[in-house]
Amino acid sequence: MTKHNENSCENFELRLEDAAEMAAERGEQIALSPDLSAHVLSCAHCSEALDAVSVSRSVLLAGFEPTSAPSPFFAKRVMAVIRAEENRQAAQGSTFWSPLQHLAARMALAAGVAVMALTVYVYSFGTPSGVTTAQNETTYELVPHQQLDPQPQSKDEVLTSLVERANGR
């Protein structure tokens, strides 16, 4: 085999690509012309290129082979496997969350009992209504009881009340 020369091989590579394309369209093996076949035998680079094209073509053709149709029970088997997996996951999930759910229910019950006990305590031991404490007295002293004047009925009464207040001061 001769050494690869880019200038001399360029024409042969184009012809090799054309031959591979025509063979793919016809569904046949790659057929080389006599001069292309002689060049491929003498050039190591072109020989490797032909081998690569042949291997690629066989791999591609193997991928296009029709597959057999699935059996009639294929969908039923797949669905049975899916249901079994869902049941297994549901069983695993319930074993994990079940104790936490019981704990949360007990804590909610305990909190409810505590709120009820505090409510009873506040209502039963709170200050009796008849007894006033110092705190209640100071609260009443902060808001003095005033005798409110009757509200004026007209604009004239409003002006008169303003004049009386101004004179009274």
User: Spans with pLDDT under 50 lasting ≥5 residues?
Assistant: none
The average pLDDT is 77
Query: Quick one: overall form?
Result: elongated
Question: Main beta sheet, described?
Answer: none
Beta-strand percent range: under 5%
| Structural class by sheet pairing and helices | mainly alpha
Number of helices: 6
Number of domains: 2
Layout of SSEs?
Layout: H1 6-26, H2 34-42, H3 44-63, H4 74-125, H5 134-142, H6 155-168
Helix pairs in contact: 1-3, 2-3
Textual characterization of the structure:
It is a single chain. The radius of gyration is 51 Å and the shape is elongated. It has helices spanning 6-26, 34-42, 44-63, 74-125, 134-142, 155-168. The model has no long low-confidence stretch (mean pLDDT 77). Helix 1 (6-26) runs parallel beside helix 3 and helix 2 packs across helix 3 (44-63). The protein is built from six helices and no strands. The chain has two domains: 6-63; 70-130. The chain is mostly helical. 74% of the residues lie in helices and 0% in strands.
What labels would you give this structure?
6 helices; mainly alpha; 169 residues; elongated
Task: Write a brief structural summary.
The protein is mostly helical and 169 residues long. It is built from 6 helices and no strands.
